[in-house]
Amino acid sequence: MTETLTTKTCTPCQGGIPPLSQKLAAKYLEQTNGWELLQNSTLIARSYTFGDFKEAMQFVQKVSELAESEGHHPDVEFGWGYARISLQTKKIKGLHENDFIMAAKINGFL
User: Fold this and answer.
1) Where are the beta strands (DSSP E) in 10-99?
2) Is the pTM for the entire model greater than 0.90?
3) Rounded to an integer, what distance in angstroms lies between the CA atom of residue 59 and that of residue 109?
4) Residues 95/72, Cβ–Cβ less than 8 Å
5) pLDDT per residue as tens digits for the range 37-78
């Protein structure tokens, strides 16, 4: 059985490793529907829409609980009817498998 991103857990990143190449990041992106590569393939982001503020806030609460349990924290922006999540491993100034694990798990909330 092939392991999917949603069955993996984030591993602590201590830095000192190179970020994912653009080619490898694009390959991971195939497993994270709706996310996009930005900033020269050093960041991924996705926008979500909701029916009202409460739905957006509940979604952000789920994301924050996931971030705490995985030890990997996204940047979150939200307001009435929307949330925007972006992920980057700041210690390496680019993308790591952890970012895609989080993206795949966040997609599972929908």
Assistant:
1) 36-38, 43-49, 75-79, 82-87
2) yes
3) 8
4) no
5) 999 999 999 999 999 999 999 999 999 999 999 999 999 999
Q: How far apart are CA 88 and CA 51, in angstroms?
A: 28
DSSP state of 92: G
- Closest Cα partner for 88 from 20, 24, 26? 20
Select from 110, 106, 109, 85 the least CA-distant residue to 10: 106
Q: What is the DSSP letter of 89?
A: B
In DSSP terms, 46 is beta-bridged to: 85
Let me know if residue 13 belongs to a domain.
no
Identify any residues that bridge with 36 across adjacent strands, giving them in sequence order: 45
Residue 1: strand, helix, or coil: coil
Under DSSP, is residue 58 helix (H, G, I), strand (E, B) or coil?
A: helix
Q: What is the CATH number of the domain that holds 49?
A: 3.30.1360.20
Q: What range does the domain containing 52 cover?
A: 35-110
Quote the tokens at residue 99: 């970012």
What pLDDT, in 10s, does the model give residues 87-97?
Answer: 999 999 999 99
